[in-house]
UniProtKB/TrEMBL annotation:
<dbReference type="GO" id="GO:0016491">
    <property type="term" value="F:oxidoreductase activity"/>
</dbReference>
<dbReference type="InterPro" id="IPR008030">
    <property type="entry name" value="NmrA-like"/>
</dbReference>
<dbReference type="InterPro" id="IPR036291">
    <property type="entry name" value="NAD(P)-bd_dom_sf"/>
</dbReference>
<keyword id="KW-0521">NADP</keyword>
<dbReference type="InterPro" id="IPR051609">
    <property type="entry name" value="NmrA/Isoflavone_reductase-like"/>
</dbReference>
<keyword id="KW-0560">Oxidoreductase</keyword>
<protein>
    <recommendedName>
        <fullName>NmrA-like domain-containing protein</fullName>
    </recommendedName>
</protein>
<dbReference type="InterPro" id="IPR045312">
    <property type="entry name" value="PCBER-like"/>
</dbReference>
<dbReference type="Pfam" id="PF05368">
    <property type="entry name" value="NmrA"/>
</dbReference>
<feature type="domain" description="NmrA-like">
    <location>
        <begin position="5"/>
        <end position="224"/>
    </location>
</feature>
Amino acid sequence: MSEVKSVAIAGASGNLGPHVVKAFLDADFQVTVLTRSTKSGTGTGKGTYNSRVKVVPVDFTSVESLAAALKGIDALVSTVAGAAIESQTVLIDAAVAAGVKRFIPSEYGSCTTSPKVAALPLYASMFKIKQYLEEQATAGKLTWTVLACGAFLEFVLGGPMLLDFANHKATLFDKGDNRTTVTSLPTIGKAIVGILKNFNATKNRVVRISEAIVTQNQLLRIAEGLRPNIKWEISEVQTSAVLKEGLDELGAGDFSMPVFMKILKGTALAGDTYGAAFDETDNDLLGVKELTEEDLKKLIAGKLE
């Protein structure tokens, strides 16, 4: 029996959040969603959720407000967006004050745990949060788990990150053989439930899941096999050059999304350089089933229609 019966979710309206909410409801957890209160001046506090979900408006800048909402909650799962990563210290302080047993921070990435990216933009904030959690855990105030899941499968196949299915173009990073772990959003939600169901086995550590390890050339080969009549436009680029370009532009004061995407691509798509492919996983522990080649073919076939 899990030590966790009630869970609160911060960031439930984002890309991953709804899948996490559904997974917990499917597993019969008591689910509370924290939303921005109108008093904080940062939102409406409104949202459409299942009738079984308790929605509590809070001030995300106030430990007192959050702690009050977290009373009686066993675990807090954060799926907040990138801009709010560093401010999770407030969530952590509130969790400690409320006696929450487990905190799962918003990370869910490919190479977010690699020491090689610790000082880079996008990643530095995540390392600060993990260090803060480790300090709280050492003091016996709460436990934590970081979930590394690789790239979101929906984003990889839904946009031009690896292959541009819509325009039949492929920009191969380092010639296209870099390995990348991918996992779908529903599976990530179920894995988070698995973390709390395996409370002791996932305590104070990073757990890794992987539905598949793919390369651009592999996906391209599948696409060409399915639709040999399509001619793909191929170009090549070095991830190290993409990363340098992004860092240089950021250093020059350009904080636009395309610049941050260059930093992301230059690291998360660099394969084994930053550990983006998980050869050792906690799939069995968390109930994650790996995709077969046939599964990938079906997914890619849907993108070629």
